[in-house]
Design a protein that fits this description.
761 residues
Length: 761
């Protein structure tokens, strides 16, 4: 009987998938099975070991047996006392989001443990510090749940008797979202003896909330680099499942071999968009500084389901080598992060688009994070580099000296050349412009280096910037350092979880091993950030600077696991407070890449990627970061002249409403050999000035009038991009052919480059 029943239901669903979206909703409410559950019906026939006796359940039948916990005008929250299952119903259209696929037991591919993982609303990774071992617990298999309803909140207490853990979680209905939160101070761990000292390492809450079945159509959005799309059931079963840490890996731990070169995850969000017009945006509201985003597709991770979820890292791990053997250790202290919270925002629109998901997160940033819209013309971003340390022979002995590669006078020459050729709006940064910056010491003096010119030369440079309304952001970058200025490598270096000093190393480009020819440098403990940021602010204000670029701290987040014991969330707090101080006391702040925690204090962002990391599991790149920020915070691309295909990058920038960025030095490129700036081998200002100005004019003409508008619709068909802005302007970009069209006029990038400023056709 059950096999015939499965065939009938599967056929019904296939017919339903041909109906308009509104009809699908009606069919589901009348007792048929959602497209998300059809994969179980399809697979249950052929696997005696994995659900051959399983009869597929309908959403309506399951929902009837559940208990209504709480509701408001927009949502209804249900739970089941018979199984580990929670449901969120969108009252607008009746669509139900499940904490787990309701027919996971019938998954043909999944075996026992994986099925229980799919059925679990909570997954725990724990370990024994003495034995350095770890294990996983799944609430549907190892847990016992106790439920309590209080007002708009469902409180679930998860107990894991075998390991002695108790983890309370609150599910709270708000007007626009479901809040899922946990107070770590209420967690109970098994610490009865050294032998039974079991501690929590990682925690996943609602890991299957965005699960999609093998017959569903749609895609996931992950915030890798600019953003990437993972289509449901894309067949990439030989790819690696996606896993990346929000705000990047903790650089305190130094790997033996060079890690893969990847883009950073700047935003603590992920989303699902279904063909039915239903979407879900997940925002990590608390605990974002130590969380992983993970995704897999049907057939990849021993399951027929596609998944996208987050995992909180409660204690950090580190790997070091003893006699060439890797040893992994993890922190054996109390959980430092006080609270964890994920917010799930259901979104519905029959023609749901990536830009709609971005709009929900943009609203979150303005309402919850205090990010204020900035009205500004789109400038050309220029990064200048002042001095370097270089070994040169002196009386036959190699001596390290400070050497200028761009003096203050030369900096003015570069910028004036750009201005005279049409780059009339610019933001300019200058790195290593102080003696301490050049020497690698902790830099807070805000005094120009005499190596780059006299104080008069520096004054003429800043006066020129003021005259031409060019915003100048001197860079202060202090993540790595050498001893001096009151900071010492013995006492102020960040410590790894293994108890070793964190020394940042260079790697061989050919082999990926550590480069023994370059000296490792110490990583500055974030424990000194509060006093250091105050010193910087005071000195920049005393020297009357109207702008500041705080270097890597807006895009690199790390801790110190020694005596100071600064977790990543502490470091994030210090950075937020420092940026707020800079914003209030030192004028404008420019961020060189901006993680979400920096957005509320940033006036312009440079080095915003237009690509993802390009993992095999991805199907295409999408400018999700840009869709969120356009009309909110002005931004510029990564370095055009540092890109393998500069003209293509310019076209990608214009399609995403982005400004462009250039790295420039004045001296011959050969002067950079064997210095910290050797990576800027492409930055010859004499070669790029005319091109940069021409490309800026192209960007300026195409995007005129939409600089402060939100992007309300974004569609990509290969290299053909359509972006619709809030004021109704439609811009069609043909990346492959280098053209952009708006208001019936076509702009050709080649015309600007070849005709020294030719207008569009």
């Amino acid at each position: 009987m059950h096999k015939r029943l499965i065939r009938i239901i599967a056929g019904t669903a296939a017919a339903a998938m041909l109906m308009p979206s509104c009809c699908v909703f009606a069919a589901e409410k009348k007792g048929s099975v959602s497209a998300g559950e059809m994969m179980a019906a399809d697979s249950a026939e052929n696997d005696d070991d994995s659900g051959s006796d399983y009869v597929i359940r309908s959403e309506t039948d399951v929902l009837k047996k559940m208990i209504r916990a709480c509701e408001n005008d927009n949502f209804i929250l249900y739970y089941s006392e018979d199984e580990d299952l929670i449901a969120l119903e969108n009252r607008r259209n009746g669509y139900v989001w499940w904490s787990s696929p309701i027919n996971a037991e019938g998954d043909q591919i999944a075996r026992g443990t994986m099925k229980k993982e799919l059925e679990s609303s909570l997954i725990v990774v724990y370990g024994n510090p003495e034995e350095r071992t770890g294990s996983t617990l799944r609430s549907a298999k190892n847990g016992k749940m106790k439920y309590r309803v209080s007002g708009d909140t469902l409180e679930v207490t998860y107990r894991f008797p075998s390991a002695g853990f108790v983890i309370p979680v609150k599910y709270t209905l708000e007007d626009k979202y479901l809040s899922v939160s946990a107070d770590t101070s209420e967690f109970k761990e098994n610490k009865r003896s050294e032998e039974e000292n079991m501690i929590l390492l990682e925690l996943s809450i609602l890991p299957n909330m965005l699960a999609a079945g093998s017959m569903e159509n749609g895609y996931y959005i992950v915030p890798d680099g600019c953003g990437a799309k993972i289509n449901f059931n894309n067949g990439k079963t030989n790819a690696r499942a996606y896993s990346a840490k929000v705000y990047g890996s903790d650089i305190t731990a130094v790997p033996l071999y060079r890690p893969d070169i990847t883009e950073r995850v700047y935003l603590p969000v992920f989303a699902s968009v279904k063909e039915t017009g239903n979407g879900m945006l997940a925002v990590i509201h608390e605990g974002d500084s130590n969380v992983l985003i993970q995704s897999s597709v049907s057939g990849l991770s021993k399951s027929s389901y596609n998944t996208l979820s987050s995992r909180f890292v409660l204690r950090n791990t580190d790997t070091y080598y003893m006699n060439s053997e890797p040893l992994t250790v993890f922190e054996n202290n109390e959980i430092e992060q006080d609270s964890l919270e994920i917010r799930f925002y259901p979104v519905y629109d029959r023609f749901l688009n990536t830009a709609d998901i971005a709009a929900v997160y943009r609203q979150y940033l303005t309402e919850e994070q205090g990010v204020k819209p900035s009205e500004d013309e789109l400038p050309l971003s220029v990064a200048l580099y002042g001095g370097v340390r270089k070994k040169e022979p002196f009386l036959g002995v190699p001596v390290t000296r400070k050497k200028a590669v761009t003096t203050f006078s030369q900096a003015r020459e570069i910028v004036s050349g750009l201005y005279d050729q049409g780059a009339d709006r610019m933001v300019v940064t200058m790195e290593n412009w102080t003696d301490d910056g050049i020497s690698g010491k902790v830099d807070y003096s805000a005094k120009p280096s005499s190596v780059l010119g006299s104080s008069g030369d520096f004054r003429k440079l800043t006066e020129y910037f003021d005259e031409k309304d060019i915003r100048f952001y001197p860079v202060v970058n202090n993540t790595t350092f050498t001893s001096g200025n009151g900071y010492w490598t013995v006492s102020d270096t960040a410590m790894r979880a293994s108890g070793q000093y964190s020394r940042q190393v260079s790697y061989s480009a050919a082999y990926g091993t550590r480069d023994g020819t370059k000296k490792a440098v110490s990583l500055l403990s974030p424990g000194v950030f509060p006093e250091l940021f105050e010193r910087i602010s005071v000195n920049y204000k005393k020297n009357e600077f109207s702008g500041i670029c705080p270097g890597d701290i807006t895009s690199v987040l790390y801790g110190d696991y020694g005596k100071r014991h600064v977790e990543r969330h502490d470091s994030e707090k210090y950075i937020r407070e420092g940026l707020k101080n800079f914003s209030e006391n030192n004028g404008s702040v420019l961020s060189r890449g901006a993680c979400a925690y920096a957005l509320g204090y940033t006036d312009h962002i440079t080095d915003v990627p237009l690509r993802s990391s390009g993992y095999d599991i991805f199907d295409e790149d999408i400018p999700f970061y840009q869709l969120v920020l356009h009309g909110l915070v002005p931004y510029s691309s990564t370095s055009v002249n540092g890109d393998a295909d500069p003209e293509r990058l310019v076209m990608m920038a214009v399609s995403a409403g982005s400004g462009i960025h250039y790295d420039m030095i004045y001296e011959e490129i050969s002067e950079l050999k064997d210095t910290e700036y050797d990576r800027y081998y492409y930055a010859d200002s004499g070669f790029w000035t005319e091109t940069a100005a021409a490309e800026y004019r192209f960007i300026k003409d195409v995007l005129a009038g939409v600089e402060n508008e939100n992007i309300v619709l974004y569609n990509a068909d290969g290299g053909l991009i359509t972006a619709v802005y809030g004021n109704g302007t439609v811009i069609n970009t043909d990346i492959d052919n280098g053209t952009a069209e708006r208001d019936g006029k076509t702009f050709v990038l080649a015309d600007y480059l070849e005709q020294n400023g030719g207008a569009g056709n």
